[in-house]
Write a structure and sequence with these properties.
Layout (H helix, E strand, L loop, with lengths): L1 E3 L5 H13 L3 E3 H5 L8 E3 L6 E6 L7 H9 L1 E3 L6 E7 L6 H10 L7 E6 L15 H24 L13 H15 L6 E3 L8 H5 L5 E4 L2 E4 L8 H5 L5 E3 L17
Parallel strand pairs: 1-2, 1-4, 3-5, 4-6, 6-7
Antiparallel strand pairs: 8-11, 9-10
Length: 260
């Protein structure tokens, strides 16, 4: 089984590659964080079955929805089956590995397989942050397609691999102070706006992994339980959606298999 969370598609693609290789079932974490669904899902773990987690890095830390999911999930039949985690990031992960280790330890789980993949960046809300150039996107994806098979082999053969983009500077500040501020102040959808370029296509509604958007009078309306994945901004075909002023005139990125 593979539990994954994804906004703009990077982690979804990685999870799908793992599922294909291991013939595993995919479980989208966002489905269990929606208001209308229970927050204590129960899963049956088969003997010898691997338990995978795939998710993006949000502000040098784990998306809170993933942390919440792990805290509430129940694994029936768990008896030291292998647990692994692959995080996706635009640059570095900070101490997210420690966060994950603490989250699963609280559930009686442990793992030595915590890895990361550097993929095209999608965070554009703050000054100085934008999507990668097309050239960099291509380079990152070419490298990922070389690196992912190595991670799969390490997991399959249960051989530890040192493959985690921690970063080198200010990690305590990034994964501590900045991450905590992100969780406290940024998980809000109040700054979202939609201008008159909107064509009422509904792609933002379908892309939201936590069912936080509905169309009202033909335009998106946010319902108040945003995870800051930015899927709605990036998938909008007319660039109608912005998050305050921070995303204006910036690039957009949404994973597609045949292009960066």
């Amino acid at each position: 089984m593979i539990f994954y969370f994804s906004g703009t598609g990077n982690s979804r693609w990685v999870a799908a590659q793992l599922a294909d290789h291991f013939s595993d079932t995919l479980y989208p974490i966002g489905e269990y964080g929606r208001n209308e669904n229970p927050l204590a899902p129960e899963f049956e773990v088969k003997p010898g079955e691997k338990i995978g987690f795939v998710f993006p890095i949000h502000s040098w830390g784990m998306p809170p929805i993933v942390t919440q999911f792990i805290a509430n999930m129940q694994l029936k039949g768990y008896s030291n089956q292998q647990v692994y985690c692959i995080m996706t990031c635009g640059d570095e992960c900070g101490h997210s590995d420690r966060m994950f280790a603490e989250a699963i330890k609280a559930k009686g789980l442990e793992t030595k397989h915590v890895y990361s993949l550097v993929m095209p960046n999608s965070y554009i809300c703050l000054k100085g942050f934008d999507v990668d150039s097309k050239e960099v996107q291509v380079q990152k994806m070419e490298q990922v397609k070389l690196d992912l098979p190595r991670l799969i082999a390490a997991i399959e053969n249960d051989q530890l691999l040192d493959f985690y983009a921690k970063g080198k500077r200010f990690l305590k500040i990034k994964s501590g102070l900045i991450y905590n501020l992100f969780v406290k102040y940024s998980l809000t959808d109040k700054p979202y706006t939609c201008d008159n370029k909107c064509i009422s296509c509904g792609k933002c509604v379908k892309a939201c992994p936590v069912n936080n958007i509905v169309l009202a009078n033909g335009k998106p309306t946010w319902k108040g339980h945003c995870t800051q994945c930015l899927a709605c901004i990036h998938i909008c075909p007319t660039k109608s959606i912005d998050y305050g002023k921070g995303t204006r005139n910036k690039g957009r990125y949404f994973f597609q298999e045949n292009r960066p």
